[in-house]
Specification:
By secondary structure, the chain is mainly alpha-helical. It contains two helices and no strands. The chain has one domain. The protein is elongated. One of its GO terms (molecular function) is 3'-5'-RNA exonuclease activity. One of its GO terms (cellular component) is P-body.
């Protein structure tokens, strides 16, 4: 049981990963503070999650459409 959790894969491909790297760097004094309020960071996280879900839905629907055309 932890209060906070994060994970990251490849900061080259995913903006949330870049953001986590930047925040960790700021906390460890490796780079400048991002000057982001917690509310702004939450909005960014929500937007990223929405985009991820939209991409997943689009991919699933595309596969369904392809299968429907193939079967037809």
């Amino acid at each position: 049981n932890v209060n906070f959790y994060t994970h990251f894969t490849s900061p080259i491909r995913r903006y949330p990963d870049i953001l986590v790297h930047r925040l960790l760097g700021a906390v460890l004094d490796y780079n400048d503070n991002l000057y982001q309020t917690p509310g702004a960071l939450e909005q960014i996280a929500q937007l990223c999650n929405e985009k991820k879900m939209n991409a997943k839905t689009c991919s699933e629907r595309s596969a369904e459409l392809y299968l429907a055309v193939l079967i037809r």
